Amino acid sequence: MSITAPPVTFDSRFAQELPELSVPWQAEDFPDPRLLTLDETLATDLGLDPTWLRSADGVRMLVGNRVPAGARPVAQAYAGHQFGGYSPRLGDGRALLLGELTDSAGRLRDVHLKGSGRTPFARGGDGLAAVGPMLREFVISRAMHALGIPTTRSLAVVATGGTVYRESPLPGAVLVRVAASHLRVGSFQFARATRDLGLLRRLADHAIARHHPEAASSERPYLAFFEAVAAAQATLIARWMLVGFIHGVMNTDNMTISGETIDYGPCAFLDAFDPATVYSSIDHAGRYSYRNQPIIAEWNLARLAESLLPLIAEDEEQAVALATEALGRFRPRYQQAWVSGMTTKLGLSGEADAGPLIDDLVAAMQADQVDHTAFFRTLAAAHRAEAPAPMPDEWMARWRSLGPDPDAMDRVNPVYIPRNHLVEEALAAATAGDLEPVNRLVEVVSAPFTVRDGWERYAEPAPREFCDGFQTFCGT
CA 157, 161, 165, 166: dihedral to nearest 10 degrees? Predict the structure, then answer.
């Protein structure tokens, strides 16, 4: 018997509080949707019954064709700098904010559909998404969550039954994404461009209440809000760098106010360690290379500061001075997070003066083009005399003199990441109708720190012939 109502009622807080930043819209009608994958743990945490979600009514809700009680689907408006060039009107061209749910910890969470059809922000696009890119986001976001990195999460991927045309015809899909919110730097750029100071203030107050409530009690709440966003981003980018993650498209519309990673398009993880690595097929100048990510984060935060200037102080000169001073704290915060993380990856206590050791390590890793992920596990094994030393004797002696703990290293250095060749292999199989490789990869990356029998190939570096010339694509 069909269940006729979802087991929870949605909120529509964003749509109600900030109607100027969205357009009410409905998903395209998908006559034959089929669930491909579902994160049952996440569903339960959101108060959604996984069994119901697998029903015909549940799947229809997951593609936006059955709007649940309390939901008011909207396409969100935002602006953004894309590869440095400003676009005043971007917005959700192929996505809808279905509404919000409160999770088991009492946190408000967005439920967002990606690939749900054209909206007024589509800018000539078809508004659709293909199975491969949507499953990529499911796999990578699951891995990032398991690695302890703040991230949007993927509740489900649903095949639409339709065809998407890119370089070739591909099966279509919708991703259901869950986020602390979808507020981004580009949201503030859009609001500032309207010249409506009341709207900008309401947006900032909404963001403060939702993500950084401690800023509300500050003498200058909007400056404190900016500093909180910058601090969250400093920590986030350091965590990316520590695991070798390359986002690939760090436009201002892809930087969240919450400090979560968002939009897993042309993203990838480092194979051989090279700070200049770029995987995205559209990043011809290397703007979003691995080593540039902290620099670009700071640049994006400068654009947020510009948007907030009228709220920071009435006098523009004073506002600029305050914002510049606050932005100047990003680099030391990032550096502190990076060094602290590297110290932990090396199994050392926080009291160890590991700076010179880390500098020499990074130079050697780059010179030898070592596998970024496997290196740290090998280093721990070498300390136990279970593997050859991966570094020169002089460096190993300096490291050992600081008393590293190899067991602590194994708790923070993953064995398994979504290795690029395995992701591509799994997505190709899924596009052809075989979901087993994707399901297996999801299982592996969900437990990244524990060695498992039978998972050996998931820990092995990519073949050299794969790495040469490997590129990723955004899927639009």
Answer: 20
Average pLDDT over residues 175-196: 98
Report the distance separating Cα 456 and Cα 443, nearest Å: 14
- Long-range contacts from 397-403, C-beta under 8 angstroms, 24+ separation: 398/357, 399/346, 399/357, 402/348, 402/352, 402/354, 402/357, 403/348, 403/349, 403/352
Catalytic residue among 11, 39, 92, 253: 253
Contact indicator for 326, 223 with CB cutoff of 8 Å: yes
CB-based burial, 1-33: b 16+ in 10 Å, e otherwise: eeeeebeeebbbbbbeebeebbbebebbebeeb
How would you classify the pairing of strands 74-76 and 22-24?
antiparallel
Query: Pairing mode, if any, of strands 169-179 and 153-165?
Result: antiparallel
Per-residue pLDDT tens for 341-378? 999 999 999 877 899 999 999 999 999 999 999 999 99
pLDDT of residue 1: 41
- Domain extents for the chain? 13-179, 185-337
294: tokens are: 């902290």
> From CA 202, how far away is CA 221, in angstroms rounded?
13
3-state helix, strand, coil in the chain (%, to 5): 45, 15, 40
> Could you give the CA distance from residue 387 to residue 199 in angstroms, rounded to a whole number?
60
| CA–CA gap between residue 324 and residue 249 (Å, rounded) | 25
Nearest to 274 by CA among 140, 156, 370: 370
Tokens representing 147?
Answer: 């690695």
Say if residue 147's pLDDT is above 90: yes
Catalytic: 360? no
Partners of residue 178 on adjacent β-strands = 111, 153
pLDDT bracket for residue 12 (50, 70, 90)? very high
Task: Check: CB of residue 183 under 8 Å from CB of residue 229.
Answer: no
Contact 158, 36 (CB under 8 A): yes
What is the SS3 assignment for 4-28? CCCCCCCECHHHHHCHHHEEECCCC
Q: Which residues pair with 110 in a beta bridge?
A: 100, 179
CA atoms of 422 and 184, how far apart (whole Å)? 31
Mean pLDDT, rounded, for 225-230: 98
